[in-house]
Write a structure and sequence with these properties.
By secondary structure, the protein is an alpha+beta fold. The chain has a domain of 117 residues. It is built from three helices and nine strands. Strand 7 and strand 8 form a beta hairpin. The termini are far apart.
Amino acid sequence: MWNLNLSFQRLKGFSLIELILWLALFSVLMTASISLLINVNGLINRGHNQDTMLLTGQYALDYIKKEILGADRIIPSSKITNLDRIYPNNIGFVILNIKAEDNEFTGKKIYTYNYSTYYLKNDQLIRIATNRNDPNYPPAKEFSGYNQLCKGVAKLWKTRLDMVNKMIHLNLTISVANAQEQNFKSTIKLNCPIDY
């Protein structure tokens, strides 16, 4: 009987101190794990926002660049009546594309003049356009449309037209939540004339 009591005494459970130490160690490990997961999630979100910002900015520049390279003429925004007044945050120029079609009845060419430009409204880069059948510049009130090119534009810098070298210098700043602002620049060599 003596041996039986000794064996039961050796099989006792955790003491209160051991249980408290185990709970403290477990809570420290859980707190560290949760903190690590929160930080990793924040890093992933910042990386995603940074990627979104880079894609948005590059898409906007490429879209405008493609339209400029296909232009027949570039017109400074100051040449369009009231454009700088109605759209003060415009890109600084208007893109003109001229489309010629043969009139099937008269055999004469009919010209359509397509004008487009971009401006900043709140944080959105918007494309507006107008079509005309006469070669005179349209007034700004004829421009319409609301083609949102991108969101998150913090600043649209006035474009610099280099008349001597026939170049356009584009510059815009994109900002997305939890990401550092990014400035996007592009210099485009023109294939078309710039109106003075």
